[in-house]
Specification:
Layout lengths: L2 H15 L6 H29 L3 E2 L9 E5 L3 E2 L2 E2 L1 H15 L5 E5 L9 H11 L7 E4 L5 H10 L5 E7 H14 L2 E7 L5 H23 L12 H6 L1
Length: 234
Amino acid sequence: MTQQAQREGRLRRIRSRVRLPRTRRGQRRAFQVTVLACVLALLPATWLNAAAASRVRTVEDVPGAPVAVVFGAGLWDGEPSPYLAHRLDAAARLYERGKVRALLVTGDNSREDYDEPDAMRRYLVAHGVPTDRIVSDFAGFDTWDSCARARRVFGVDRAVLVSQGFHIRRALALCGAAGVDAYGVGVDDRHDVTWYYGGTREVFAAAKAATEAAVRPDPQFLGPKEDGVSVALR
């Protein structure tokens, strides 16, 4: 049997398994089911926007808070990625303008050769933030972990969150569920491939976020309470 014949045979078997409704009633029901599935899939993202939209501000108009929480966004050769650098730039401006008195940098340090919080600290110090005003969370493996640990480990109950615009609403919703009263600064960035990928990813991440907000699980690593934030605020 030739390869062409084999391909045609496979196509016939696939078509025999996928049978579209032939009656008008069946087609209408299939359409209704598809619409319902789309609506259900978008409900979590709608919840995120509704819950957090009013708390997204700019560096200039965000209400002050004791602490800014800066979420990790990847490293390039050990240094902050451009997206993370933009978050850190916004956090440095918040400190310079007296909007916050300390910065909690939260990111991934799950292996020895990858250390987001220390890279974030170095960048902030190089941009004028005193090192004793920076606190590192080395177990911020995802947004929920960062929010839960900010409240339960570091004792943060009021904060300004700093992230990209496509992520800040999820961060606000999750930190609110974790017990942190927060406003968010959504950092503007060029709408490149990474930006569109991040925005698309948020649609799918919203379902996980809704589950985390409802269940409020322990973070992957909780650990003992730390006084770094209270010391930095003194």
